[in-house]
Amino acid sequence: MVRARRSFAVEDWTVDLELLENARQAGYTTKVLFISTEDPNLNVGRVLLRMSQSGQGVPLGTIPESYDEAMRSLPEARKHADDLLVYDNTENGRGHRLVARFIAGELVKTTQTPPGWLKAVFGRELRVEGKQERPSRGR
Protein backbone atom coordinates (compact mmCIF):
# COMPACT_ATOMS: atom_id res chain seq x y z
CA MET A 1 0.00 0.00 0.00
CA VAL A 2 2.70 2.46 0.96
CA ARG A 3 4.74 1.75 -2.16
CA ALA A 4 1.75 2.54 -4.40
CA ARG A 5 2.01 6.20 -3.32
CA ARG A 6 -1.77 6.51 -3.17
CA SER A 7 -4.01 7.44 -0.27
CA PHE A 8 -5.40 4.43 1.55
CA ALA A 9 -7.32 3.39 4.64
CA VAL A 10 -7.05 0.29 6.80
CA GLU A 11 -9.65 -1.13 9.16
CA ASP A 12 -8.47 -3.54 11.83
CA TRP A 13 -9.01 -4.59 15.43
CA THR A 14 -5.66 -3.14 16.45
CA VAL A 15 -3.36 -0.42 15.18
CA ASP A 16 -0.64 -1.71 12.84
CA LEU A 17 2.21 0.35 14.24
CA GLU A 18 4.69 -0.85 11.65
CA LEU A 19 2.44 0.16 8.76
CA LEU A 20 1.75 3.49 10.42
CA GLU A 21 5.43 4.26 10.88
CA ASN A 22 6.32 3.08 7.36
CA ALA A 23 3.63 5.38 5.97
CA ARG A 24 4.94 8.34 7.93
CA GLN A 25 8.50 7.67 6.82
CA ALA A 26 7.27 7.53 3.22
CA GLY A 27 5.82 11.02 3.59
CA TYR A 28 2.19 10.18 4.25
CA THR A 29 0.17 12.17 6.74
CA THR A 30 -1.28 9.58 9.09
CA LYS A 31 -4.60 9.68 10.88
CA VAL A 32 -5.91 7.01 13.24
CA LEU A 33 -9.55 6.75 14.25
CA PHE A 34 -9.63 4.48 17.30
CA ILE A 35 -13.09 3.36 18.43
CA SER A 36 -13.62 1.25 21.53
CA THR A 37 -16.06 0.32 24.25
CA GLU A 38 -15.79 -0.04 28.00
CA ASP A 39 -15.75 -3.83 27.99
CA PRO A 40 -14.89 -6.58 25.49
CA ASN A 41 -17.97 -8.52 26.63
CA LEU A 42 -20.09 -5.70 25.24
CA ASN A 43 -18.34 -6.27 21.91
CA VAL A 44 -19.09 -10.01 22.11
CA GLY A 45 -22.77 -9.22 22.68
CA ARG A 46 -22.87 -6.86 19.71
CA VAL A 47 -21.22 -9.42 17.46
CA LEU A 48 -23.74 -12.05 18.59
CA LEU A 49 -26.59 -9.67 17.80
CA ARG A 50 -25.11 -8.85 14.41
CA MET A 51 -24.65 -12.55 13.62
CA SER A 52 -28.27 -13.27 14.63
CA GLN A 53 -29.31 -10.73 11.99
CA SER A 54 -27.22 -12.48 9.30
CA GLY A 55 -24.39 -10.00 9.72
CA GLN A 56 -20.67 -10.58 9.69
CA GLY A 57 -19.34 -12.86 12.39
CA VAL A 58 -15.98 -13.33 14.02
CA PRO A 59 -14.69 -16.09 16.30
CA LEU A 60 -16.08 -14.88 19.64
CA GLY A 61 -13.13 -16.24 21.61
CA THR A 62 -10.77 -13.84 19.85
CA ILE A 63 -12.62 -10.69 20.89
CA PRO A 64 -11.27 -10.29 24.46
CA GLU A 65 -7.68 -10.87 23.33
CA SER A 66 -8.08 -8.45 20.41
CA TYR A 67 -9.57 -5.88 22.78
CA ASP A 68 -6.59 -6.16 25.14
CA GLU A 69 -4.15 -5.94 22.24
CA ALA A 70 -5.90 -2.84 20.92
CA MET A 71 -5.66 -1.17 24.33
CA ARG A 72 -1.95 -1.99 24.50
CA SER A 73 -1.37 -0.53 21.02
CA LEU A 74 -3.19 2.74 21.69
CA PRO A 75 -0.42 4.57 23.62
CA GLU A 76 2.08 3.63 20.91
CA ALA A 77 -0.31 4.68 18.15
CA ARG A 78 -0.20 8.25 19.37
CA LYS A 79 3.57 8.27 18.88
CA HIS A 80 3.28 7.14 15.26
CA ALA A 81 0.18 9.02 14.10
CA ASP A 82 0.07 12.62 13.02
CA ASP A 83 -3.53 12.77 14.21
CA LEU A 84 -5.14 10.29 16.61
CA LEU A 85 -8.85 10.60 17.30
CA VAL A 86 -10.18 8.36 20.07
CA TYR A 87 -13.89 7.55 20.24
CA ASP A 88 -16.02 5.75 22.81
CA ASN A 89 -18.86 3.60 21.48
CA THR A 90 -20.01 2.08 24.77
CA GLU A 91 -23.55 3.44 24.82
CA ASN A 92 -25.60 1.27 22.49
CA GLY A 93 -27.73 3.09 19.99
CA ARG A 94 -26.29 6.51 20.76
CA GLY A 95 -23.34 6.40 18.40
CA HIS A 96 -19.75 7.09 19.19
CA ARG A 97 -18.37 10.20 20.86
CA LEU A 98 -14.96 11.80 20.58
CA VAL A 99 -13.21 11.40 23.94
CA ALA A 100 -9.61 12.40 23.13
CA ARG A 101 -7.46 13.80 20.36
CA PHE A 102 -3.71 13.72 19.99
CA ILE A 103 -1.83 15.69 17.36
CA ALA A 104 1.82 14.76 16.83
CA GLY A 105 1.65 12.73 20.06
CA GLU A 106 0.37 15.62 22.19
CA LEU A 107 -3.01 15.52 23.90
CA VAL A 108 -4.92 18.51 22.54
CA LYS A 109 -8.48 17.66 23.55
CA THR A 110 -10.32 15.42 25.95
CA THR A 111 -13.87 15.15 27.12
CA GLN A 112 -14.82 16.25 30.64
CA THR A 113 -15.96 12.71 31.39
CA PRO A 114 -13.48 10.28 29.85
CA PRO A 115 -14.56 6.64 29.91
CA GLY A 116 -12.85 4.26 32.30
CA TRP A 117 -11.03 2.41 29.53
CA LEU A 118 -9.44 5.65 28.32
CA LYS A 119 -8.36 6.54 31.87
CA ALA A 120 -6.83 3.08 32.23
CA VAL A 121 -4.77 3.61 29.07
CA PHE A 122 -3.67 7.23 29.56
CA GLY A 123 -4.22 7.79 33.29
CA ARG A 124 -3.45 11.13 34.81
CA GLU A 125 -2.45 12.64 31.49
CA LEU A 126 -6.14 13.12 30.69
CA ARG A 127 -6.57 15.53 33.57
CA VAL A 128 -4.26 18.16 32.11
CA GLU A 129 -5.85 21.52 32.78
CA GLY A 130 -6.87 23.54 29.77
CA LYS A 131 -7.33 20.57 27.46
CA GLN A 132 -10.86 19.77 28.50
CA GLU A 133 -13.63 19.93 25.94
CA ARG A 134 -16.16 22.53 26.92
CA PRO A 135 -19.79 21.41 27.01
CA SER A 136 -21.78 22.86 24.15
CA ARG A 137 -24.59 25.24 24.99
CA GLY A 138 -28.00 24.37 23.65
CA ARG A 139 -29.70 26.88 21.38
Structure report:
The chain contains 4 helices and 4 strands. The protein is α+β, with helices and mostly antiparallel strands and 139 residues long. The longest helix is centred in the middle third of the chain and has 18 residues, at 63-80. It is globular.
Number of helices, counting only DSSP H or I runs of 4 residues or more? 4
- The helix content, as a percent range, equals 25-40%
The arrangement of helices and strands along the chain is: HEHHEEEH
| Total count of strands | 4
Structural class per helix/strand content? alpha+beta
**How are strands sequenced across the largest beta sheet?**
1-2-3-4
Give the distance, in angstroms, between the N- and C-terminal Cα atoms. Answer: 45 Å
- Main beta sheet, described? 4 strands, mixed
Shape: globular
Radius of gyration: 16 Å
Beta-strand content estimate: 15-25%
Summarize model confidence as the mean pLDDT: 86
> Uncertain runs with pLDDT below 50, 5 residues or more?
none
Fold topology:
Layout: H1 17-25, E1 31-36, H2 40-52, H3 63-80, E2 83-88, E3 97-103, E4 106-110, H4 116-122
Parallel strand pairs: 1-2
Antiparallel strand pairs: 2-3, 3-4
